[in-house]
Design a protein that fits this description.
single chain; mainly alpha; 10 helices
């Protein structure tokens, strides 16, 4: 895994099943909503950097040990819950890709280009999840819109079940991120083989940051804002019905 993989994982941050409903008060409800993100993303990504930079492990060793949690989560979901944990599975896949790419050595341009392979793996995974009708990036977005509130969680479920515009906006969020990540991959590969190596050492990070900003802006404009407005209208309609 690289800085690219970490930034992407934590920022989308690629979906696994969130808590379907929030039944506790707001402060308590936020914890179960964010728990899958913490376990599936923060723990493996954080452990990678702790092992690599804190304990001086090699990239391959750090990737291998940081894959333990997502591997266990993936197997547990299949065996116990009879369903695949998409986000844990994706993080595990990214780690495996990172391990494979870490074997590549010798060509400095290829070493620069290999980080983009992680972006492409995540981007493809996100786009496939949309095609399968289970947009993966929902996991990174839903907690911020639901805000640990039971009424907002219930409104989300009603809209997800009965509103095509809401589901379209949900898909759009993942489509934007998947597309941007693939675009970042292409840009960095082209740069690695056409620009001076010294330039790409710093420009690769600039491309990554610019891609994240672009994804945040586009997904917010075309997905998050419309979904938030639909949630507010659904909440108002539900309050009116209760009267």
């Amino acid at each position: 895994m690289s800085i690219t993989a970490t930034e992407i994982s934590t920022g989308e941050t690629t979906r696994a099943a969130l808590a379907e409903t929030v039944t506790t008060p707001e402060t308590a409800g936020a914890r179960p909503s964010f728990l899958p993100l913490i376990v599936d993303v923060a723990v493996p990504v954080g452990s990678y950097y702790l092992l690599k930079n804190g304990f001086g492990m090699s990239t391959m060793a750090a990737l291998g040990w940081s894959s333990v949690v997502p591997a266990v989560r993936t197997v547990w979901s299949v065996v116990k819950e009879r369903k695949a944990n998409a986000l844990a599975g994706l993080i595990l896949f990214v780690n495996v890709v990172g391990l494979a790419l870490s074997l590549v050595a010798g060509d400095p341009r290829l070493m620069l280009a290999k980080d983009s392979g992680v972006s492409s793996a995540i981007g493809i995974g996100v786009l496939v999840s949309v095609r399968l009708g289970r947009p993966m990036m929902t996991q990174g977005m839903k907690p911020f819109l639901v805000k640990g509130d039971a009424a907002r969680a219930a409104a989300w479920e009603r809209l997800a079940a009965g509103s095509e515009p809401f589901r379209k906006a949900e898909r759009t969020f993942s489509l934007v991120w998947g597309t941007v990540l693939l675009g970042e991959c292409v840009a960095r590969v082209v740069g690695a083989y056409t620009l001076p190596i010294d330039t790409m050492v710093w420009l690769g990070t600039v491309v990554m940051i610019a891609s994240m900003v672009l994804a945040f802006l586009l997904s917010g404009r075309f997905a998050v804002v419309p979904m938030e407005k639909m949630l507010e209208r659904e909440l108002a309609a539900g309050a009116g019905t209760q009267r």
